[in-house]
Design brief:
The chain has 196 residues and is mostly beta strands. It has a single domain, classed as Porin, CATH 2.40.160. 8% of the residues lie in helices and 64% in strands. The protein has an 8-stranded antiparallel barrel with strand order 1-4-5-6-7-10-11-14. Strand 4 and strand 5 form a beta hairpin.
Amino acid sequence: MRVIRLVVLAALLLGLTTFATADDKNVLRFNAIYSYPLGSSEDNGVTTEADAAFGAGISYEARITDLAGIQFGAGWSDHDLNVESGGSEATLGSASVWPLYANVLIHPVDRTDSVDWYIGGGFAYVIYDSLDLSSEFGGGSRALDNDPTWTLRTGLDFKFGDGAWALNVDAQYFASSVEGIKVDPINFGVGLAYRF
């Protein structure tokens, strides 16, 4: 199922490039991400929080002007959900997280510079796969609700000379919760950007 989602997503993003114009106004970014949840929830002395996790991300940005672009993308990471009560900790289970997003990005630095800085935000739809419960909690799985929310993003593309490739470093925040548990991850990404 995960592979099918990635293939469909890649096909959609690459399909968008057929509407693109020339003059390197389009950017594909491929990132390895470190997803660091900021949130946790407490109920009756039990604290529940998601662990940090590694994952991957892909996005497509179409520059509509020298100053602004529209970005579509997706990410993936697997997180453990931990509970703590009375000084003891246990892993409740794990779930895959698939944020899909659309952002408006502002590029305040001149496009001819060797560094392209972008900042912006937009809408996100965070898909939570079912929670695979650990054996301590009876095993099996439990369906989780998805979360329509908002996101903020900033990053830098460090161009490799006059070529089409660049090193990309970025961070994206999602205001997200699942089953009343605040997750609120920041996804830190490092990867490659391809301009065309």
